[in-house]
Specification:
The chain is an alpha+beta fold. About 65% of the residues lie in helices and about 15% in strands.
Length: about 200
């Protein structure tokens, strides 16, 4: 009798653990927050790239709504790029000042607006869906620049700025360029947990 009980426990215990693990992974893979809004809407991201998501209230014309949300997301992407370039400027100036040289004006921001506006032509819609926000259906669209386009964008900004950069400096600026989004998401998460 004791052996049968031990055998039953040996079978049930791993099965229970597997069931709990499966349930937890299923819950976490939904990608939704506690509000029911998908993570890709709340915190758009693409690995080593730049992403933006915008939503518009549904007018029951999905094509028109999707096009409007896409336009808004692309405009948001341009703003994001311009902010990232301002951070790059600051990093570059700090690095140059630390080395004892001097620099005047924004090294990259003067050329970024034109390049950013052109770069959104390479932004692709990566996700779209109807998402209920406060019980109101919205059409949400995520657009993104993939890692290659992001690197090309940075290379073009640096080239058109006329600045000569060492390879190490360019790597630092690229990391700073990508990291700005992560910093924003962290600040947003901290604000959310404080409320």
């Amino acid at each position: 009798m004791q052996n049968q009980k031990e055998l039953t426990m040996k079978i049930i215990k791993p099965s229970a653990i597997a069931l709990v693990a499966l349930t937890m992974s299923a819950c976490s893979s939904t990608g939704s927050s506690q509000s029911g809004i998908p993570e890709w809407v709340l915190a758009p991201q693409v690995e080593n790239g730049i992403a933006s998501t915008e939503c518009v209230e549904s007018s029951n014309n999905f094509t028109v709504d999707r096009n409007m949300a896409t336009s808004l997301a692309r405009a948001s992407l341009v703003q994001q790029i311009n902010l990232k370039v301002q951070v790059m400027d600051k990093t570059y100036i700090e690095r140059v000042d630390a080395s004892g040289d001097s620099v005047t004006g924004g090294a990259f921001s003067s050329v970024s607006r034109q390049i950013a506006n052109l770069s959104i032509q390479g932004a692709e819609m990566t996700k779209s869906d109807i998402v209920k926000i406060g019980e109101v259906p919205n059409v949400c669209v995520q657009v993104a620049l993939n890692p290659e386009r992001t690197q090309m964008l940075l290379d073009e900004i640096v080239a058109k700025s006329g600045r000569e950069l060492e390879m190490d400096d360019q790597k630092v600026l690229y990391q700073e360029f990508k990291a700005y989004k992560a910093q924003q998401e962290l600040e947003q998460a901290l604000k959310g947990s404080a409320e």
